[in-house]
Amino acid sequence: MAAMSIIPHWNPEDRVFWERTGHRVATRNLWLSIPALTLAFAVWMLWSAVVVHLPTAGFHYSTNQLFWLTALPALSGATLRVFYAFAVPMVGGRRFTALATASLLLPALGIGFAVQDATTSYEWMVVLALLCGLGGGNFASSMAHISFLFPNANKGTALGLNAGLGHLGVALVQFVVPLLISVGLFGVLGGDPQPTSAGPLWLQNAGFVWVPLIAASALAAWFGMNDLSEARAGFAEQAVVFTRRDTWGMCWLYLGTFGSFIGFSAGLPLLLQSQFQRSDLLTLAWLGPLIGALMRPLGGWLADRCGAARITFWAFVTMALGVMTLLLTLPHSGQGGSLVGFLTAFGLLFAASGIGNGSTFCMITRLFLTQRQQAAEPLPSAQAQATRDGNVEAAAVLGLASAIGAYGGFFIPKGYGSSIALTGSPAAALLIFIAFYVSCIALTWWQYSRRHAPHPC
Question: Per CATH, is 6-449 categorized as 3.40.50.1360?
Answer without folding.
Answer: no
